[in-house]
């Protein structure tokens, strides 16, 4: 005799009740139906209907094993749903999509070129294959099926004492002066690779002269020169960028970068294009200085900003235990600084040249400030020689120096009046009275009529 069947489909109309009762005899057709139902149930997750059947059979006194045989489930699965409160899976019935017949084609395109945009795929499907669906349908499927590049493994590297320093710029919140004027604020970072000992210079310019002036200050701060400096592809270091072919014998480096490297005895190393993590040590220093010092600052001048950085660097930054090498930065920096190359007897001064036109008031504009050139004519173009702290103006025709100013601090052209201003009413009251001859309007009308 056959035992109880091992699986049954769900029947609507109340709690599930087997038609044969416990241990009843069923026909071969019923057994085949049960087997087909069991096969269907094995490939599916327990849904809400099955969950209700399990609860109904359990209330009727069936054991876990009996319920499992009836529903085609393992008794452990039934027990988990009854005793441990596991919830059934709710599956939404999938409706056909207009994109179904085009999915193999999209997969083929993406496997050949993973960077294809969804806009391009939608455009080609509509134009060449008669697709009538929306762009969002294509975009959603493309986002799900686009081949994902394997994550790149980044290899951390350490450098020997005195071997390398990394350089970068950061843009910070502007300085607000006591008069309410906003000045741009940029931070130059140089970090010694072995110890993470850093130097920062807060400036108002990113130009060539300021860039190399910050190098001179950094070398003086560390007491020596690293053997190698690591840069990104900034225009103050290289003059040939990605995509430009370099002729045979042509150098990609800026002339002043090569001159500085030769004078101080360091070699130049560049990061790979679009790989800022190559200089990760200085990249980590930028947010550290920003969050610990520069965010929400109240600097009113560049001098104050640099003085506050020096105090903070000695009291906070150099006394911390670094999270990577696990040593106090100042202690490790002693080995780093002692291995640096010697400074040359005289610094290498980088200057730059540009031109400006003198306005009608005898002033020229540079970096948002106006400087006086007393001996120049209005409309005359003069050459400016730019240093880190000074600006000199020269006549183009004979090279005569016309003016010299402190950079960023032009001399005042007009002094403030010593006496109080005079009101307009007082000026008008001091004017003499003129006699006005009164004539009747009839004389003017007659003059108009008789010509």
Describe the secondary structure blueprint for this structure.
Layout: H1 28-42, H2 48-59, H3 64-71, H4 75-83, H5 103-112, H6 118-129, H7 135-145, E1 164-176, E2 182-192, E3 198-203, H8 208-222, E4 228-231, H9 255-264, E5 267-270, H10 280-294, H11 302-315, H12 329-338, E6 352-357, E7 363-366, E8 369-372, E9 381-386, E10 390-395, E11 401-406, H13 424-430, H14 441-449
Helix pairs in contact: 3-4, 6-7
What do you see in this structure?
Helix 3 (64-71) crosses helix 4 and helix 6 crosses helix 7 (135-145). The N and C termini lie far apart (141 Å). This protein folds into 4 domains: 1-90, no CATH class; 100-145; 164-241 and 250-338, Nucleotidyltransferase, domain 5 (2-Layer Sandwich), CATH 3.30.420.10; 352-406, Beta Barrel (OB fold (Dihydrolipoamide Acetyltransferase, E2P)). The protein has 14 helices and 11 strands. The protein is extended. It is an alpha+beta fold.
Largest beta sheet: strand ordering = 3-2-1-4-5
At the third CATH level, what is the topology name of the largest domain? Nucleotidyltransferase, domain 5
- The first-level CATH class of the largest domain is given as Alpha Beta
Output the structural class: alpha+beta
* The CATH H-level homologous superfamily of the largest domain: Ribonuclease H-like superfamily/Ribonuclease H
What is the straight-line distance between the termini?
141 Å
Helical content band:
25-40%
Order of helices and strands: HHHHHHHEEEHEHEHHHEEEEEEHH
Overall number of domains: 4
Instruction: Indicate the proportion of strand residues.
Output: 15-25%
State the total count of DSSP E strands: 11
Main sheet record: 5 strands, mixed
